[in-house]
Design brief:
Layout (H helix, E strand, L loop, with lengths): L2 E2 L1 E3 L2 E3 L4 E6 L2 E10 L3 H20 L2 H17 L1 H12 L3 H24 L3 E4 L5 E9 L2 E5 L7 H12 L3 E5 L5 H13 L7 E3 L4 H11 L2 E5 L2 H14 L2 E5 L4 E5 L5 H13 L9 E7 L3 H14 L18 H16 L3 E4 L16 E6 L14 E7 L2 H9 L6 E5 L3 H10 L4 E4 L19 E2 L8 H5 E9 L2
Parallel strand pairs: 1-5, 8-9, 8-11, 9-10, 11-12, 13-14, 13-18, 14-17, 16-17, 18-19
Antiparallel strand pairs: 2-3, 4-5, 6-7, 7-21, 12-20, 15-16
The structure holds nicotinamide-adenine-dinucleotide.
The site of nicotinamide-adenine-dinucleotide (NAD) has 29 residues, from helix 7 and helix 8.
Amino acid sequence: MGVYGNFIAGEWRTGAQASTNVNPSDTNDVIGEYAAGTRADVEDAVAAARQALKGWARQSEQTRADILFRVAEELIARREELGELLSREEGKTRAEGIGEVGRAAQVFRFFAGEVVRFGGEFLPSVRPGIDISIRREPVGVVGLITPWNFPMAIPAWKIAPALAYGNTVVLKPADLTPASAWALTDIVARAGVPAGVFNLVMGRGSVVGQAIVETVDAVSFTGSVPTGTGIVAGAAKRMIRVQAEMGGKNPLIVMDDADLDVAVNCAVDGSFFQTGQRCTASSRLIVHDGIHDRFVKGVAARLDKLVIDHALKQGTQVGPVVDGKQLDQDFAYIEIGENEGGRAVVRGQRLNRETPGFYLSPTLFTETHNDMRINREEVFGPVASVIRVRDYDEALATANDTSFGLSAGIVTRSQKLAQHFQANAESGLTMVNLPTAGLDYHVPFGGRKGSSYGPREQGRSAAEFYTIVKTSYAQSL
Ligand code: NAD
C-alpha cells in the first residue's frame, strides 16, 4: 500500500514517516498510510505559501470564485463516496458523513459568491475635500489546525474564506482523520489553485501544529481547550492574529411547560447523535422538577432503542467512539460520575458487534449537581447528565455557571421565557425548541468564555478574521 503524501508547493510529498489510519468501526480495516510531516515540511509549505501570496491576492475575483465553485461541484458530485470515506475514518454514520460532505460543498459555494459580493466602504471625511475608503486586504499565510470530529466541514469552513479573501493556506488536519483532508486537498489542487496557494501538512500536533504557529501570519484553530490555550499563547508571543474554537459543556434547559416529545428529541439528538462527539453536544440537561421524571423516562426509553453499530451499516443510528483513547476517557468519566454520586439510569457498556470496533452504549446520569466534574469538564462522548431544578431562574443560573459558553438551549412553550433565555444565556449560540447542535453555514458561529477566542467563523463574519482593514485618506487636488 502506498503512502498518501502531503501537498506542498503544488507537489505531493511522502517523506520518511507515516501513520496508519484505522476504521473505528472495524479495527481490521486500514484506510491507508498517511505522511507524518516534519518541521521542515511546514517551513517549505509556509515558504511556498508566502511566495504565492501576492499572485493569489491579485488574482481576479472571477478566477477565485470559479475555483471555489469547482470545489463545491466536485464535493456534491462525489458526496456519497466521500461521505463513506469520512464515516469510515471518523465513525459517524453514513448519513452523517454524506451530510457533512454536502455541508462542505455549501460552504464553498457560499464563499464563491462572497468573493464577488465582498466590498469596502467609501465615506466623506470630516475635513473638506478629503475622501476616505475602507478596504479589506488578505492577512497573509494562514495556518489552519483542525480536529477529528468534523474532518471535512471544519477544514472547509476555514479553507473557503481563507482562499476567497486572497490568503494562502497551510492546513494541518487531526492525526486521527487525515483521509478526508487529503481528499479535500486533492479536489482543491485540481480545481486550479496555483502552486503554493494551498498546502496540506499532515502529522503530529506537537510537531506540525507547533511549527505552523511559529511560522504563519495568522492561525485559525478548532480543537480542545488545552491545545487552544497553548496556541493562543504561542500566537500572542509572535503578535499574530489567532482564532480558537474550543470545547463546550452545553446546557439544554427543559421547562415544565415543554412539549415532552420535543424535549426528548432535542436531548437524544443533541447529547448522543454523532456519538456525543460534537463541541455543541448538550451534556448538561437542566430539567424542571415538574417534568423531570417523565423526561428521564422518555429519554431512557429512546436510548434503549438506539441502534449502535458499524458506521456504514444500514440502520445504524450511532457509530463507534473515534478511538481507544477516547473510549477510555468516556469510561473514566462514567466512573467519575458514579463515584461523585450520580445515578446512571442508563449506563454505558462496551458493545460487541460483527466487526471489532470502539462501540459504547449511551450513559444518562440523574441525581447530579452542577459542581460535579461530570458537569464541569468536557467528556466528548455519549454521556449526559440531568440536573434537577425548581424554576427557570435556577435553570438559567445553572446553565450559565460554567467555564464554557458555546451553545445553550431551552425547551419551553413560553415565548417570554424563550426571549429572556436568548437575551441572558452566556453563550455564542442559543437554541429554542431545538437541539444545541445543528447549525446553518451562512451565519456566524462561535462561543464565549472558555469556548472561543477571537472573531466568529462562518458566514460574512469570517471576513473579520481572514482580512485586515486598511483606511485610506485622499485629498482631491
Ligand atoms: P485537539 O485539541 O487534541 O487537536 C486539535 C488539533 O490541534 C489537531 O489537529 C491536533 O493535531 C492539533 N494540535 C495538538 N497539539 C498541538 C500543538 N501543541 N500545537 C499545535 N497544534 C496542536 O482536539 P481534538 O481531540 O482533535 O478535537 C476534539 C476537541 O475539539 C473537543 O474539545 C471539541 O469540543 C473541540 N471542537 C470544537 C469545535 C468548535 O467549533 N468550537 C468544533 C469541533 C470540535
